[in-house]
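Technical annex, item 7. During the second reporting period the consortium partners agreed on a shared format for inverse folding records so that results from different sites could be compared directly. Each record opens with the tokenized structure and is followed by the designed sequence. A conforming record, contributed by the partner at site C, is shown below for reference.
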């Protein structure tokens, strides 16, 4: 059975099940279904087959009824005790018109048609001979091509080919050292130039958009964290050195946990290791709401157990939990008004001055020198 070819037949055989004898004269009672490629059952368009002889009958098939790779026929008879089977019951179809091929005595297939045109005995041979003549002119390794004259009509062809090549998109990974690779390298740098230049004027000077782009790049650089190991002699290295020195100057860098007395007494989030260790140390307080530092204050009292700090005067803003506090390794010598020196301290200092040996004060014009002179005169 050829696939998708009209005017083919399918033979069936009818016999009596009771005595196994061929059934003749039963054509009008025999019908059949076809199942193409395992599909649903479809009745054969040739409703009843043509009787051949000795129980054999033939159905005529349409082209559509053979359009499948494998086809099953299921014949039946309405006559009692009559069994009908396909001969064969199922087929795998073959290529259409394969039996129309011409095969010679040696088993070789003759070409009868090319592109629908019937070929004569010498059609192919003549074409091949013409090709051989042309290739002979070329010669071995193209030796005959050296004397080919230039045809002016080829100019347009060459130009067309070049134009087509220039219009082809540059590949993502061009061949090394090719024109495409160089063009791609230049093209990759153009966005950066456009970004910096903006819409430059005819002289190529930077316009406002170009300057804004540069400012943005500088801002990004300044906002980038300093690396752990900056390049030697770089700005980053110098800033990191300053930062290291600044860290060494700090006794504590923490935040306010809670406020005890507004703006002067507060509790640290992380306390110090020794009671009264920071007394008279200078501290800086940063307002996280207003993003400002207040002027330097010094600590008049510190309680280790509660991590409570008292400063000498109010901050320049309302203190609140979360404000940053930096306590420096720098002491502040308070005045009497600040409450750090008692009257006894002042008396002790005065006594020390009066008890100072006169022989240590001989600088011309000083109070000590005049006192020494008066003392000598009095004696």
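Designed sequence (site C submission):
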């Amino acid at each position: 059975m050829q696939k998708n070819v009209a005017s083919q037949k399918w033979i069936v055989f009818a016999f009596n099940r009771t005595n196994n004898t061929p059934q003749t004269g039963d054509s009008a009672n025999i019908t059949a279904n076809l199942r193409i490629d395992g599909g649903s059952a479809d009745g054969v368009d040739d409703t009843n087959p043509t009787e051949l002889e000795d129980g054999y009958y033939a159905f005529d098939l349409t082209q559509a009824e053979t359009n499948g790779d494998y086809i099953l026929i299921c014949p039946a008879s309405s006559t009692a005790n009559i069994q009908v089977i396909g001969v064969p019951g199922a087929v795998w179809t073959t290529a259409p018109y394969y039996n129309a091929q011409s095969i010679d005595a040696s088993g070789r297939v003759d070409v009868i048609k090319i592109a629908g045109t019937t070929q004569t005995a010498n059609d192919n041979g003549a074409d091949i001979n013409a090709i051989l003549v042309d290739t002979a002119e070329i010669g071995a390794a193209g030796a005959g091509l050296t004397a080919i004259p230039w045809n002016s009509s080829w100019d347009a062809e060459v130009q067309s080919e070049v134009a087509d090549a220039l219009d082809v998109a540059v590949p993502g990974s061009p061949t090394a050292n090719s024109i495409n690779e160089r063009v791609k390298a230049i093209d990759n740098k153009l966005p950066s130039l456009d970004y910096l230049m903006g819409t430059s004027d005819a002289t190529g000077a930077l316009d406002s958009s170009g300057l804004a782009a540069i400012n943005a790049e500088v801002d990004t650089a300044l906002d980038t964290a300093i690396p752990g190991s900056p390049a030697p002699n770089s700005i980053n290295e110098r800033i990191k050195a300053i930062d290291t020195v600044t860290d060494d100057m700090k006794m504590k860098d923490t935040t306010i946990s809670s406020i005890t007395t507004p703006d002067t007494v507060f509790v640290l989030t992380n306390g110090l290791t020794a009671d009264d260790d920071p007394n008279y140390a200078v501290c800086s307080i940063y307002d996280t709401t207003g993003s400002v530092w207040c002027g330097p204050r010094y600590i008049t009292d510190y309680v280790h157990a509660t991590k409570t700090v008292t400063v000498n005067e109010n901050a320049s803003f309302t203190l609140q939990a979360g404000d940053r506090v930096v306590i420096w390794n720098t002491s502040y010598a308070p005045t009497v008004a600040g409450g750090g020196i008692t009257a006894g301290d002042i008396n002790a200092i005065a006594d020390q001055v009066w008890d100072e040996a006169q022989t240590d004060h001989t600088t011309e014009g000083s109070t000590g020198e005049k006192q020494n002179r008066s003392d000598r005169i009095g004696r």
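The mean pLDDT is 81. Residues 165-224 form one domain. All partners now use this format for quarterly exchanges.
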